[in-house]
Amino acid sequence: MSERLRLSIGNDLHELERLRCEVEAFLERGGVSGRAAYHIQLALDELVTNVISYASPPDRPCGIELVLERGPDAVDMTLEDDGDPFNPLQAPEPDVNAPLEARPIGGLGIHFVRKIMDQLSYERKNGRNILFIRKKTNQE
Amino acid sequence: MELIVTTTGPVTVLKIDGRLDSGSSKELEDKVMGVVTGGATKVVMDFGGVDYINSSGLRVLLMAFQHLKRGGGMLHLCDIKDYMREVFEISGYNELFPIFPDQAQAVAGFKG
Hints:
The structure holds two protein chains of two kinds.
Chain A: E1 4-9, H1 15-29, H2 34-54, E2 64-70, E3 74-81, H3 109-116, E4 119-125, E5 128-136
Antiparallel strand pairs in A: 1-2, 2-3, 3-5, 4-5
Helix pairs in contact in A: 1-2, 2-3
Chain B: E1 2-8, E2 11-20, H1 25-37, E3 42-53, H2 55-70, E4 74-78, H3 82-90, E5 99-100, H4 103-108
Parallel strand pairs in B: 2-3, 3-4, 4-5
Antiparallel strand pairs in B: 1-2
Helix pairs in contact in B: 1-2
Organism (chain B): Fundidesulfovibrio magnetotacticus
Pfam families (chain B): STAS
InterPro entries (chain B): Anti-sigma_ant, STAS_dom, STAS_dom_sf
C-alpha cells in the first residue's frame, strides 16, 4: 500500500506526457482509480503547466521536483520549484457566476486544484516554492 | 484526439475522442473555430469518447460558445463521463451550456 514516486520535471511542456504516464502507473500500483485518479492527474497537470509557463523567464529555466506518496486513505503530493515566488492559494478566484459571454478566457486551472483537492498548503523556503496537496481516496 | 464532424439538418455534431489537454487544445480550437466561423449556429459537442479534460480544453468550449452566441447560435454538450461532470460544475459551465445525456437528446434540444 505504501507506494512512492519521485520525479524531476524539465522546464518544457512536452514533459506533461511523461508526467501523465508516470502518475498513471503510480496510481494503478496504488489502486487509485475513477474520480480520485482524474482529480490527481488534473491537479498535477494544471500546477506543472503553470510552473513551466510562468514561473521563470525563458533564459532561466526552473527545476521542478514532484514527490507522490500513497498512504492508507490518501495520496500526498509535494511539488517544489525554484521559480519566482507564487502562492497558488492566494491567486484570485475566477468569477464563475459571470455571464458566459463576459467570462475571461482562462484562470480556471488553479481554481480546479483548490476545489478538487482535500488539503493544500504553501511555503516559500530557501528560494523554492513548496506546495503540498492531499487527495483522499476513500470517498468514491 | 480525433474529431468527426457530421451535419444533421440544421445541427452540426462534433464527436470528440481522446484527451482534451494542453497537447490537443490547439488542434481542437482550430477545428471547432473552423466549424463555428464556417456558418454553423446549432452545434453539439459529443463527449462520449473523451476520457480527460483540463482547463485548456474547457477554454476552447468557452471560445466556441462566445463566438456562437454573438451570431445567435448555441452550443449543446452531451455524454460527459460522470467523473468529469464535476469540473463543469466547479467552473460554472453546467449553468451555461445545456448538457444532455446523449447525442439524440442534444440534437432534439434545438427544436421548439
